[in-house]
């Protein structure tokens, strides 16, 4: 089984590029399940029902979130209605939606878990213990594979979580930094891992933002209204091949420009 994990989609530009390239990637790598991080898919940050629908129509099976998931209140009812649009599991229970999805592929079931890191991020529940709880749920649900999106700032936190989960989940992929790392690997006990899968959106940008606006913000320290950059786009992803025992046997980085 091949599971495709796609990096943070940025704005309408990223959505359109995903629509253009995702079907080709799915055919090329014989993809069985596609997970896309969509927390920045709305223009101006966050996610909207329209951008979520665009991602689904483009070929995603599950959309994961992050620290910007709740930026646009229009998404709140949608999170409650669609079980395959996730927000990080370690938000309080009162937050709209959930951070766990079970996908029945017929021959097997795949659980997807969405977590938010706490280093340099929101002071949420411990992602390690939250993962423990949801892995028990996935095992009880009969999941043959478990995939975790850890949306986090700190490289060390992502990697520590991956080693903590090694052998208990099929793959762990990091999101949030919008920069694809070159460390895709299979950990000693059979868990596939990449620190950050990257971004889908404007190539000549600062994490998707017009470079001049990012420079202005960092140089002058005054408020700046960020706008998505134009021009050519990129798509970053990682393909994890999972065997019948739920172990990762191969991980391949994907980068299209």
SSE layout and pairing:
Layout: E1 2-6, E2 8-9, H1 11-28, E3 33-37, H2 49-58, E4 62-64, H3 75-81, E5 100-104, E6 109-116, H4 127-140, E7 145-151, H5 155-165, E8 171-175, E9 185-186, E10 192-194, E11 199-202, H6 211-220, E12 233-242, E13 248-256
Parallel strand pairs: 1-3, 2-11, 3-4, 6-7, 7-8, 8-10
Antiparallel strand pairs: 1-12, 5-6, 9-10, 11-12, 12-13
Helix pairs in contact: 1-2
In short:
By secondary structure, the protein is α/β, with parallel strands linked by helices.
Task: Explain how this protein is built.
With 257 residues, the chain is an alpha/beta fold. 27% of the residues lie in helices and 26% in strands. Strands 1, 2, 3, 4, 11, 12 and 13 form a seven-stranded mixed β-sheet that branches. It has a six-stranded mixed β-sheet with strand order 5-6-7-8-10-9, covered by helices on one side. Helix 1 runs parallel beside helix 2. The two termini are 26 Å apart. The model has no long low-confidence stretch (mean pLDDT 97).
Question: Tally of extended strands?
Answer: 13
- Integer-rounded radius of gyration: 17 Å
Biggest sheet layout: 7 strands, mixed
| Strand residues, percent | 25-35%
- Termini distance? 26 Å
> Average pLDDT value?
97
Which stretches of 5+ consecutive residues score pLDDT under 50? none
* SS field, number of helical segments: 6
**Percent helix range:** 25-40%
Secondary-structure class: alpha/beta
Gross geometry: globular
Secondary-structure element pattern, one letter each: EEHEHEHEEHEHEEEEHEE
